[in-house]
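Final report, closing paragraph on structural work. Over the funding period we assembled a curated collection of sequence-structure pairs, and we close with a single example.
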Amino acid sequence: MPHADTLFTGGVVWRGPGRSAAPEPLEVAVVDGRIAAVDADLSAWHGPATEVVDLAGGMLHAGFVDAHIHPIQGGLERLACDLSEGSTREEYLELITGYAQLNPPRGCDASRSWITGGGWAMSAFPGGTPTAAELDAIEPIRPVLLYNRDHHGAWANSAALALAGITAETPDPADGRIERLADGSPAGTLHEGAAKLVASVAPAPSLDDELAALLEAKRYALGFGITGWQDAIVGDYFGASDTALVYRRALAEGRLLVDVTGALWWDRDRGVEQVPELVARRDALAAELGPHARFRLPAVKIMADGVVENGTASMLEPYLGPLGETEHPRGIAFVGGQALTDAIVALDAAGFSAHVHVIGDRAARDALDGFEAASVANDWSSRPASDARRHHLAHLQFVHPDDVARLAELGVTANMQALWACYEPQMRELSVPIVGEERAATQYPFASILRASAPSTGAHANSGMNARPVLCAGSDWPVSTPDPWQAIHVAVNRQLPVDDPEFDPEPLLPHEALSLAEALDAYTAGSAFITGRGSGDPEVAGIIAVGAIADLAATDRDPFAGPAAGIHATRNVGTWIAGRRVHG
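Its predicted structure, as stored:
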């Protein structure tokens, strides 16, 4: 019997889907970066060079995998004008003022020294639309561009709007909207594609800036026990550079550590003619680094629609109030109908995993129509369970009941951003209701999706594409915190913690709550599968089992032992990647 490099003892172990109903008082031995033994007593594995980790009553679990995250964008915002710690108009203005004072313009031309960042909430402003005048009072000369929390809109000052040439005569782009004053001039809030008008004239971060952002994001994520992720946009989005270069540099310098898959960006202004280009990018990287490198490009991200708050989510029924009186009363399908079907069929045929953003119920239905067409055209029934294509729908805020079962039947995974499954202040505090009661009762139906997949074990089920996870999970950071325990808390309780300033005593559709085991499995094994490291893959993570990669995390308590209302208080105290301690 070899001696363990690391031996975990003194706590409980959550092994993963189907292995137990609760954490068990087990010990875990790690040798050469993999789990070598899991048993009640592994004292025989203790050698003179073994590092013994005393869990002190806490829980050891597989490292979290964030299946939908924007780490470089998040890192850039943490290093720029970061508004994520604020929640009111006054707090945001104070944060912006402080940042401007600490970061004065350099050089002789202040108009070229932009202030960028983001993290503000629509609920802090009347109608969800802050104004340029509020920023002008702080910065009348330097251009300012600040994205909101969901990154489907931005706040610009007059200097930034002028540099972009936006006036009362500027038409709304096809995929966005410019908020306007009574005379038609821009008010300062830009929705969706309208934000690109300003972003296109703002200075792009350098490769060094983006590397610093990636390293900051990695440090931040490791602190939460996150050992891998899928970057939900790799490509030219809102003028962003090709972040694949940043990952390759970090990997070459030995500084990446985490396991990363990237979702290449689907240009919604083009069609299937772009597929050969995407294939070439994927295959070139695999040829350079190998198929199992810590950075891979197996997926393509399609943003099918926008978000509900600004009326760009694609809905089956019209919005209520002013949003229903716009040019697009049912929202905007950025890629929908036959165009979305063609894209999914072509990507699937090319061996890609389709990662589709869907918020509205019409977008969800369009995407499922596309997957159904792909299942026939590309003969999914003949594929083995180990097939590398891992299709998933992200967000799923509104899903028509008729479409819940279709998702599971097709073997498409629901990628849940569980932290959003509570009454969002943006929805509650806008001046008028924007969706009817029947539509509101279909939000984030994660439990229904899971129950529709029978027989199921944890977050897994047998489905039309063989045995595949029904649920995976992500944060969409910097839209919301990357801390998985905050998201898991809401997945189980369907409301924020009592001490949260945005707490609502009424849970959102409590019948859609998951068990702690289901939510934890989704954030570990489910997301590991989506990133190509599930059961049956050459490299297995997301579970604690002999032979699996020792990507692990430890908590300060057993979250199963306390009340569900206290899950959010769980803290990560240690993170290991391939058996190497990287945090704590």
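Residues 492 and 515 are 6 Å apart (CA to CA). Confidence is low (pLDDT under 50) at residues 455-465. We thank the funder for supporting this effort.
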